[in-house]
Design goal:
about 80 residues, globular, mainly alpha, about 75% helix
Length: about 80
């Protein structure tokens, strides 16, 4: 997971573009635009996080706050897995 890549995607791509990339990656096809990641799994993770951030932005939340909130959710899940 690359948080900076998820933030970049959320700011540069629309919800529709992110959904298309998720569909491509879920089917193990190349995404329609450049996404950083070592493999399809990492790219998919980055796009899924971007989609969550983009959804908050589209609802009117500040981009920085949306990013922080989504990353806080991720940290909570990761810390509970340990």
């Amino acid at each position: 997971m690359k948080p900076a890549e998820s933030r970049r995607l959320a700011l540069e791509r629309s919800a529709e573009e992110l959904a298309a990339a998720i569909e491509h990656l879920s089917e193990e096809r190349e995404p329609p635009f450049s996404i950083a990641g070592a493999d399809h799994g990492e790219m998919l993770t980055n796009v899924l996080l971007a989609q969550r951030i983009r959804e908050r932005i589209d609802r009117g939340e500040d981009a920085k706050e949306a990013f922080r909130a989504v990353m806080a959710e991720v940290r909570a899940v990761v810390s509970n897995d340990g």
